[in-house]
């Protein structure tokens, strides 16, 4: 079964000069359950808009978005999907545990169950000893782990990520990649993430959707059939990165 399907989705945005901006054109993608899919493209090709349509934050003007086979306008189980943004968006007056708990406060779970989930999820991302730390007391990598825990605490089946590790230094980013892959396998999640980093796409994804810019449209869908974990310095990953860069360069042209 497909977790997400985009059926010839198109999108326009209005502009002050009156001429609509064509952002996405006839995007057609099927994302199976438990897949890890990267949406790759240059700035302005509609990557984040596409992710926002999957999340139900933006409506398509043409076509349809289906979640677990259900059209997004009729989908009701939105708590089975979470979104990790590029900025960590932690509330500075809340501790790590309180920031993670924020994802549960709109639900119907009792206090004891909320606390259990928060403790379990902080432990899952390696922050069990930092539950009472405030954001300003944490490193950039630790803040990203808190943001990841906040996205995971609702126990989603689909996790959407909009370049969440782009501001981390390479060593910490590699650690977060390994953590994300470990947790995705442990929780049997479907991941869909946006990136402009070709190496990140190859290291994480088993399928990469390359977009042409303005309007965004599919240039190529590449399967990455390499075993995990993927060493960025290995010959196989280096070759996959080289090929994907060629595809991306062709899409830009």
From TrEMBL:
Gene3D superfamilies: P-loop containing nucleotide triphosphate hydrolases (3.40.50.300). Its EC number is 3.6.3.-. Residues 4-238 form the ABC transporter domain. It is an enzyme of class 3 (hydrolase). The keyword Secreted does not apply. SUPFAM superfamilies: P-loop containing nucleoside triphosphate hydrolases. GO terms for molecular function: ATP binding; ATP hydrolysis activity. Keywords: ATP-binding, Hydrolase, Nucleotide-binding, Transport. Belongs to the ABC transporter superfamily. PANTHER family: ALIPHATIC SULFONATES IMPORT ATP-BINDING PROTEIN SSUB, TAURINE IMPORT ATP-BINDING PROTEIN-RELATED. This is Aliphatic sulfonates import ATP-binding protein SsuB.
